[in-house]
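Running low. Any example?
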Amino acid sequence: MSAKRFKGAVNVQKLKKYAASKAGRDTLISFGIVIVAFVVMQILLAAGAVSSLLESLLVPICAYIVMAVSLNLTVGILGELSLGHAGFMSVGAFAGIVASTCLSGMVAFEPLRLALSIVVGGICAAIVGVIIGVPVLRLKGDYLAIVTLAFGEIIKNIVNVLYIGLDSAGLHFSLLQQSFTLAEGGEMIINGPQGVSGVSRISTFTSGFVLVLITLFLILNLINSRAGRAIMSVRDNQIAADSIGISTTRYKLMAFVISAAFAGMAGTLYGLNYTTITATKFDFNTSILILVFVVLGGLGNIWGSIIAAALLTVLPEVLREVGDFRMLIYAILLIVMMLFNNSSLKQRILEKRGMKQMEKAERSGKEGA
């Protein structure tokens, strides 16, 4: 056997071993769900088999998937309860809209302008994440949840008193009331409680799909890396992690800031999908909705968050046909899914699947020997 063929056989064995592991299986399932769903939707869109209502939900679904996956990094992998994720989404949305408006005259190619705006939104949310995370992550449990909840409300109220305009002289900024006058041809970008209007809708389903893939690639690689194992050790036992020299503050802040950055990117994607948007969209209810995606999909389960985010975004719209009973049925379905998620039946199913995977791994190991 030549050295090249032997090296190829070794690589195939490594891929098989990785695919049989839990990390590899979760990675393949996560990417598989997203890619298959995208291909199916593209076929349906080309055939005209998708209603206008469902088509309008495609970009928000992508944004919510990114939000759920990023929050799972904080809640599921780090083990800290955050109730202010909508605040980071709000920062990303309005920062991205400002960036897109400023770049509209310089970058005519919309996908590039959207990409740059998403990067700006992510960076701004990450900076806010650092500012919030340094003092807040010293708290634990309920105290951390309460402080992050307050942060989300603070961000919403700041945006409600924020005025930003653009004219030939550049950006103008004021708080509480508009204290500047725009030159002829200028436009208001953020107009206090009225929010933003007249936004160019440049977000697309394809750009949302790409952002979801980038999010999965980076977060799954982080989870399976040395840093990810350190983050999980902080979650499992912070005292033990400290005792073996792991900088718990550093890794907690790392997970929190990365989670905030992706929430900001999702916010930009979401904000540039609508012509009008206000700060009230990113309130406490949105944070709870994202948390429901994470809990329903399973803490630390990335592909579960993907399915839960897509399903629970579409479900209320599908149930509109039942009129007044829509939210009642939605609540009942949520309760049933949560009961199943914590039932012994699910545990037995997972145990059987785990046994099958172990038997498969043992057989492949014997064949390799």
Q: What stands out?
A: The chain has one domain: 15-368. The first helix runs from residue 3 to 20. The radius of gyration is 23 Å. The domain at 15-368 is CATH 1.10.3470 (ABC transporter involved in vitamin B12 uptake, BtuC).
